[in-house]
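Database export, one record per block. Field names are fixed; values are copied verbatim from the stored entry.
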Amino acid sequence: MDGVRVGGGAAAGRRGLPLSLIILRYFAYVLAATFAVGLAAYLAFALVLNMGVAYPANEGDKALEETSARLAVLTSDDEAALDAAIPSCYWWTVFSPDGTRLGGDAPDSKVDLSRAAAFDGLAMEYGVLSTARHEPVKLADGTTCVLTYEYLPQFTSKEMRDALPNPQNLVLVTAAILFVAALAGIVTRAARVIARKMRPLTEAAQRIEGHDLDFSVERSGVREIDDVLGAMDEMRASLKESLETQWRSEQERREQVAALAHDLKTPLTVVRGNLDVVLEGELPDEERACAVDAAASAARMGEYVRKLIDVSNGDATAFSPINANVHLFLTRIHPQANMLATAKDLQLAWHEDPKLSETALRLDEALLERAILNVVANAVEHAPNNSTVEVDVQTSNNEELTISVSDTGPGFSPEALRRGCEAFYQGDPARAAQGHSGLGLHVAAEAALRHGGAVELANRTDSPGARVTLRIPKA
């Protein structure tokens, strides 16, 4: 017995965690990750400032007066001294009185605004994410040095300032990447946990779908899922009990039919033997005709008994396929089919694919022989007098064996096309024949099914009549 049984119905499921608590747990993980990433970003930023790796956002305002005083005594031709006197929180540009750029480290995107600040008085630049200020400072030779700075933290190293985003944005981007990575990890973990919790439900559904009912449903540990699993386990148990009851009932019915059929064989044998003795003697014509009819009826009853035994034992009979040469197999059936036809003064047209002599399939020969002869007998029953029953055996690329049996009788009604292979079906007035038992096509369909194939019913298109085709695939 597989798995751990979910016992006690819904009450047992109540011992698991509610689904809402599991969802709340992962929501708490997200909140914790948000807090942890935020705290890490804050501590990292504070560490950068305390270690002197970066200036605070207001460093430009704080150092402006001191920097301006250092620049006032310098000249524009000494760029090294200017660069050394200006901290990395500033970008600087020197302009001549006529507006010509003489030097500086400000990027080209800021030069025009710096020139405007030097001569037009523009001091502030308001952007979406930051605010920049342009402050002009007069140098000793009459030129103007414009200091540009943003209200953002900035690296104390000019090389780092020019190579990296400002520390604030760098920390925020890093924090965002860490948060996304943490969120992805939480989502992946949640998906795996939920998938694991749902696995017993999926496995139970798959096993029930596969008609495997001899198992017990496992617990998932989630209250709502366990409730569903409990209901599914009850359904499985009920279905198993129902199918077992149905199988026992069917088995009992088959055994009763088989027993009755066997019991009928003895008195039928006595009746037929006595009728044969009577027919051997001298009888008036009228009495002989009655005896002949009785003998024929007894023969038909014997055939019914044989078919009843076939049907009752059909599902219980062991399926024993062997590798068989199809042509040799058919050579044993052809004479028997011919006898069935000649018994009613019919012709049998037998067509066989020449490739069948080289074709081998795994067949239960006895089972398939009975199926083919039943189909031929069905055609013989419904064929008009002095007509021809056609048997056509073909193979498709050595992958499928098709046996088609055709007659020129009334054909199948629409209902018979749907139900003709049902056991004891006799509801087709068009093909109602004296002595028709409704078992022949059912026996053939059961045999084809055992081989993984099927029986197809159709009406002929080239003439009146019916066509029954057995399809046997290569195993």
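Remark 1: Residues 96 and 143 are 5 Å apart (CA to CA).
Remark 2: Confidence is low (pLDDT under 50) at residues 1-13.
End of record.
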